[in-house]
Every structure is written in structure tokens, then in C-alpha cells.
Write a structure and sequence with these properties.
It is built from seven helices and nine strands. It is α/β, with parallel strands linked by helices and 207 residues long.
Length: 207
Amino acid sequence: MTWLADTRTSYDTVAASYAEWVSDSLEKQPYLKAALTLFATQADGPVVDVGCGPGHFTAYLASLGVDASGIDLSPGMIDLARRSHPELRFEVGSMTDLALPAASVAGVLASWSLIHIPDDSVPVTLEHFRRVLRPDGLLMIGYHVGAGTRLKTQGYGGHPMRVHIHLRQPWWLARRVRKAGFTVEAEWLLDPEARTPQAILFARASA
């Protein structure tokens, strides 16, 4: 898939700049930090951060006592994550073909990583999340709210990129999450006055 290769190459290119950009993101976003803390307390067992980037959220979950690991499409990001957090487990992989055993984790975190998945690939991605989750396991998705898709050609440090960012309405995502075998438990809207608001969805894997 061309979009998958473009996404991988883009994040390899910006890995170091991106890691610097997000280094203090939790301190700047207290409501996001609260959401991750809630996720950590509600996921009863190991969790996987899918699209973990340089591992900053994975490390935060681990600091709360969670058995957290990370997966990312970009080898460059995984290299940074391993060097920054050598005590944690990080692997290269794609959420569209998640290489984890069935019912192997109690929580799946997808923080602003599903935004790069085209609409027609979202259902299979959510099915992978459901497959690897234990019954009653917790899913947390962070995403951009809106409609349509925009192509990002430059980012983080001015480096060239070619990634599509898909904006979605809460009802659109919630409908597909339910269809994949989840019960939606909560939806939070962040930065509602921003040009592009953000949102978080919490859902439980149906037994």
C-alpha cells in the first residue's frame, strides 16, 4: 500500500524532530494526561501502545505501574523509543496487521495514530484491536475531529512528509467501533474552540 509506505518513510524522516516536539506534550495537555491515567487504572493487565512513536505515552503508562509496550510502523521511531526507554519493549509493526496473539492484552491505546488510516481500512484495524484484546479489555483512541482528509507535506522541523490526515466526526468513529465488537463507554472532546478539535474515545471489548 502506497499510503502505508509513505507514512513509514515520513515518520522515519521526522523521528528526531517529532520526539523533541512531543517531549513535554503531557505537561501541556493536562486533560490528555488525565485520560491516559484513567486508561492505566482501568486496563487490568498488559497494554500495547499502537502507533507509539518515540514511546513517550508508553513510558508514562509504565511510570504508573502498567505493563506497557509499544508498536510503531516507523523503524526510526522504534529506534528512538528503544534508546530513550531501554527498559520497555518496542517493536516495528502495523496496526492494519497487528502481530499479537488473540486475547493477549488488557488495553489498546491508539493515540492520534488511527488518523493516518484511510476510511476503508479502519474496520479491519478495529477488528485487529478487538482480536488482541481480552474480553472486557479497554480501547482508547485519540483523534482529530472534523471532516475530510488533508495531505501533510511538511512537518516537525521543516522536514518533507507525505502523510494523509483523516478528520472524523465522533459519531462516525463510534459507529465503526461498535460494529467491531466494542461497547463505547465515554467520548471526550478536547480543545472544542480550536480550529481542529481533538477527541478521545473509550470502549470495552464485548465479552
